[in-house]
Amino acid sequence: MSTVRFSLVTIATKSVVAEVWEKVMSGIFNSRVESDKDGLSESKWETELRKLQEEVHSLCHHAIHQLLPMAGVYQQSLLDNSLQAYSVYAPEEAEKVFNEGNRVIENIKGHISGIRYNACEMRKANRKLNELEDMHAKAIMYHNTVKPYMNTLCYHMEQLKAILR
Prior knowledge:
The protein is mostly helical. It contains four helices and two strands, in the order αββααα. Helix 2 runs antiparallel to helix 3, helix 2 packs parallel to helix 4 and helix 3 runs antiparallel to helix 4. The protein is elongated. This is Glutamine synthetase.
């Protein structure tokens, strides 16, 4: 009877090769990805969904708690400038300053309401989708329902930032 000897180096090498092969195959077939946090398996859909949810949360937080207060302060300063225009400028110039200020104020008002509406609707859609169990269906529904609100919200935020600069 022959004796087979295994060295620990050979066993460790085969173990590492098997792990690498498993990662390559899972990457090719998009099956399961290993999570570093607590060793639990997490699907590609779950990681992408979590990234989108974090993006939605940070976008809403930035819009409501940072951008809207800045817009309110700017809008108030425009109102003050428009009201003081008649005491500083000639009537024709004051009318021009007043009309320009009103145009910008109305533009800001439209973007503020667009931000508030889309943030509210995006949160509602997000809450509804969190009730679903199937991650693949949740990711697809997230893309179809939440993503359009997110895109519109980003548009209004960019337009408002351009006005505030």
